[in-house]
Amino acid sequence: MMTQKIISLFVTCLLALTLVACQSVPGALTKQQIRVLQAEGFEYTDDGWAFNLSGKVLFQFDEDRLSDDSRTLIDHLSHKLQEIGIYKIRIEGHTDALGSESYNKALSQRRAEEAAAEFVKAGMLAHNIVVIAHGSSRPVADNATEEGRQQNRRVAIIVIP
């Protein structure tokens, strides 16, 4: 009788552990979501899954308007993210180092808002998009060269699981 109770308790514990192991972690991405993010060009960074638009969505000097190619890319990304059940993102605006920090902060805010507006046009809900302005504080390239400054005039898209 005692052996049967121990076996029953063991089986119950084993089933409970199995169910816990099968549950997905809240906020975690599935393997399928990660595969699609990687296929689309997202990379895992310290900030999470990020699509750095440096080299993809660049802004002209002192501009906050997206090119037609950038709008097309954002529309594509928006639909892909929604297809795989990702509805929350953070968009971070950046500038080169020319100009004052206060001006660059405002310009990077407008750039991030411009990209956010494109995501909303493509079907994402505005309240699921966080916009952050970094100004020139996070360069990805050397601001001493024109090529480097061009790469720094960008937005980054980070998935919020």
What can you tell me about this protein's structure?
It is a single chain. The protein is of the alpha+beta class. The protein has 5 helices and 5 strands. The chain has helices at residues 2-22, 31-40, 68-83, 101-121, 146-152; strands at residues 43-45, 48-52, 89-93, 129-133, 155-159. It has a 5-stranded mixed beta sheet with strand order 1-2-5-3-4. Strand 1 (43-45) and strand 2 (48-52) form a beta hairpin. The protein is elongated, with a radius of gyration of 22 Å. It starts with a helix and ends with a strand. 29% of the residues are buried. Residues 13-26 have low confidence and may be disordered.
Mean pLDDT: 85
Order of helices and strands: HHEEHEHEHE
Strand order of the largest sheet: 1-2-5-3-4
Query: Which spans have pLDDT < 50 for at least 5 consecutive residues?
Result: 13-26
Structural class: alpha+beta
Counted by DSSP, the helix tally is 5
**N-to-C CA distance:** 49 Å
Counted beta strands: 5
Tell me the major beta sheet: 5 strands, mixed
Helix content: 40-55%
Name a few traits of the molecule.
161 residues; five-stranded mixed sheet; alpha+beta
